[in-house]
């Protein structure tokens, strides 16, 4: 599904290069659950943003279902991202001015799904995550755990092939964190490929494979 070959990311300031990622190569098979770990500043979030087509590498090759992402223009990247990828952030990234229902509906609007179909899909996801009673509330009326539930529901509503989760339990207490991880595990068992960035050894073990980064390199 994913193949990264010699990915590098650096920022130039005159002759100086500040490296964030160095010579990153790994494959991800469809249906895998991968945890990426490493200290702050090791490049974890950068690699996730490159995988999610929200950032581009300075060098190297990225293939997504055999398509050369590193050669694509922004419009094509945006289309791929919307069609195949759901993103879950540590800070939830819900839209404050929209209700839970409207937040969930947003990805479907991007995909130009018709009104009745949208309402049906939102109702289905509200039911699945046991948040029907919250549908008319705004994000600031929810607890952190509830906001993250909504964020995951929004990430999966368009049935992405790949979910990228950047510290999805980082702002939650341990019980809420376990609840979120169990949901991700269930989605993975149903066939969704998941790549998460985490600081937690306990939550990293939900993945079938752990990739460790240090100073921008993959640790062997």
Task: Write up what this structure looks like.
With 220 residues, the protein is α/β, with parallel strands linked by helices. The protein has one domain (31-44, 74-218): P-loop containing nucleotide triphosphate hydrolases (Rossmann fold, 3-Layer(aba) Sandwich), CATH 3.40.50.300. Helix content is 35%, strand content 27%. It contains seven helices and ten strands. The chain has helices at 44-51, 74-84, 100-110, 115-128, 144-156, 174-189, 201-204; strands spanning 2-13, 16-28, 33-37, 59-64, 67-68, 85-88, 162-166, 193-197, 209-214, 217-218. Helix 3 (100-110) packs parallel to helix 5. The longest helix has 16 residues, at 174-189. The radius of gyration is 18 Å and the shape is globular. The two termini are 22 Å apart. The mean pLDDT is 93.
User: What is the CATH superfamily?
Assistant: P-loop containing nucleotide triphosphate hydrolases
Largest sheet features: 6 strands, mixed
CATH topology: Rossmann fold
Structural class determined from secondary elements: alpha/beta
Give the class-level CATH name.
Alpha Beta
Please describe the topology of this protein.
Layout: E1 2-13, E2 16-28, E3 33-37, H1 44-51, E4 59-64, E5 67-68, H2 74-84, E6 85-88, H3 100-110, H4 115-128, H5 144-156, E7 162-166, H6 174-189, E8 193-197, H7 201-204, E9 209-214, E10 217-218
Parallel strand pairs: 3-8, 3-9, 6-7, 7-8
Antiparallel strand pairs: 1-2, 1-4, 4-5, 9-10
Helix pairs in contact: 3-4, 3-5, 5-6
